[in-house]
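G.,

No rush on this.
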Amino acid sequence: MTEAAEPFRLAIPDAELDDLRARLRQTRWPDQIPGTAWESGTDIDYLRELCSYWATEFDWRKVEARLNAWPQFRTVIDGQRVHYIHARSRHEDASPLVLLHGWPGSVLEFLGILGPLTDPTAHGGRHEDAFHVVCVSLPGFTFSGPTTEPGWHCERMASAVLALMNELGYQRFGAQGGDWGSVVASCMAARSPASIVGLHINFVLNSGPHAEDGELTTHERELVRELEDHLATGTGYQAIQKTKPQTLTYGLTDSPAGLAGWIVEKYHGWTDCDGDIESVVNRDDMLGNITAYWFTRTAGSSARIYYETERAGLMDAPAGGVDVPTGCAVFPRELYRPSRRWAEHHYRDIRRWTEFPKGGHFAAMEQPEGLVNDIRAFFGSLRGASRAEVT
């Protein structure tokens, strides 16, 4: 059940900005063994310089202005506040599309692709490529605010997004997501296939090869090595957030440097950056996202998606699989990658499979043009058979 949506405009008080800068200036820095750089986590030299910039030069008001340039709303669904951008195209016959972020992301990562998606003729596309876009802040993340009761796992979030889209008058629509957004969108497609015209994901859930797959190809053996390496060295954050997220929350909510250290390591490790984060993700965009977590005090509640989903036994692709038309954008520096035939165990109607030459986990920030083109091509291929309906 939803409540009437209210317009939302982001305006953080000056006192909050002053407090953030004061905390950054008073950071108690730990030691780090010289020469170890990023080996055991976020590099202290990089983080100190970034936090100095954050305290003295970063302009949060520019972030607010970019976000506030788009129509935003907040409503209540299933007892939880939900924030969303509702960016309708000037082309009335545009197809509705919901965009879903993951952790440690937010709707801010989509600001660079909203224009091309909603107004394609102004960005090298065709009128037929236009979308009415809804960007949802997942419950517990940034502008939706903290979750207020247990049980907000991926399936419950999927139900909330489906309810929101129905409330907005979209009976059939496309869904796109990465990271947890991919999981939630996949749950939506499995739960309500009649609602989802097509599913486009840039994080393809991967459980590895199945017994019936037989002999692995050379490429698949390399993918298995990637997955094993990720499980062995890249899931420490998950172990904490799946089991004791509250303990972590105190430090991340009290120390902006601590929050930045926790998230920046993911930008460094999960992007296709060859060790130089800012070669692929703009420094101000990265800090804008981190600052959104800081001001909304949602470091802990966003981490609870791991805890709640693990407790519900849902840390995998939807048990019954997904039968709606699916497009998969596979980037080389994703956390791990499946082969197409592995993916087809979960996604049984893959219509488009694109392997990109460059890019990582934060596709909308790293490779916005490539992601937009793939979204356009995938949904464009579906329009002849099933045109999205707007009520």
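When you get to it, here's the other one too:
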Amino acid sequence: MKKFLTCLLAVGLLAALCVPALAVDVKFSGTYVFEGWQENNRNLRDDSTVPRAPSTSWMDQYMILNTQFKIAEGLSINTKARVMDTLWGLDGTANRLYSTSPQLNQNIEFEEVYAEVKFGPGYFVVGQGPNGFGLPFSAWDYPTAQFRYFYTPTKNWLHLFMYEKLASVGVTNNPVTGAPVTNPWSDSDYMRYNYNIYYFGDKWEAGGMFLWDQDKAARGATGTTNQWFIPEAFVKATFGPLYVEAQINYAWGQIGTPDSGVVADHLNINSYQWYGKAQYTMGPVYFGGQYSYTSGQKADDPGTVRAFLTTGRDYKPCLILINPDRDKYIGPLGAPGIGPGMGINNNYWGSANAPNTSGSGSTNFSLYQVFGGFKPVPKLDVYGSFTYANINEKPTGWVSDNLGYEVDITATYKLYDNVSYMVGFGYLFTGDAWKGTLSSASTSNDWLLMHKLTINF
């Protein structure tokens, strides 16, 4: 009987301790993606100096898992994890071939952990959280250490005040003992201050952002401060069967501004980009076009950084050109070290050490595209596009600024409300820009066949 009462007391105590935990409401959501690829000629060359690349195929997958722990009304802790983001056939420890970062080579990589606290007519966000603004054209949505306050005076207006800590080098660790060492330079951090304003209407929405970056992380080595400002604005609107969206961004500031007398020179930032898209729908048929532009480095003005702003990792206008979904696993287009230089940010077309990937973005290009689609049944969407792209600022000695023409055809079928399957075919008529400075080189076309399964939950 005594053992029974002891066990009963232990069970009761355990149940009492678990009551607060059981009160937490846990919600899961996310996305699983599988992709398979077959590509014909990735280096885009066919001559004696750079032989034609062999046909290659690969498969990859990833899962995004979002978890919300609702502790009380208006109080929650949120996480975002990237699970098994890897090529099939690898052991999961070298997921993205272009990166050696240990944070990017994990089977389970927690990207975000932050608390959300309702306060007055808004709420606070504190922790490692998401960061992004505007349309996918330039929105990165990468996690940063941040303190944000969302203020919603009415249902139509939203104000966002944000402070971010992007680097902290005021205190470092001794590489031998591991003990903390104070940096001799005070305030040697990289900070960002940000204000966003949004308006949400019935048929349209718009937003504006003003960002101020102050990077003092290199002060101890060079005695400099990097500082820049970025205003951005976007709009999305529906006028009956017509949908339009547009965004414009600008950046100015200085890199290498001396604050200790160690560095005498600096670089001025003067970078800009814009994007526009229109789509018209008539029953099961739709058609439209888009144009995007991102400034590039001028060869005759090395003191001004123009290749500064880049496209976002979710901007994927084509299957071959500017497609981070493919480039992030196997690297860039073009023969290694030959593709056109894209500017001071080390974003290059066809450079093996700086691919056009979800970790880089693209700059110094103009893209023109027309597209159309047909939905014979609600679950099936057949889509096609024709794209031309060129380099805005051709480097000295390069043969051409023509990146090429691309034709893409995709078909997407919704197996369930939250499950879709897509097959796609892309063909790139390679432009002479991929020759670099080698006028005698011979370019060759490329085609790609892929399929993709997406499950949202």
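Helices lie at 2-22, 219-222, 324-330. Residues 2-22 form the longest helix (21 residues).

Enjoy the weekend,
O.
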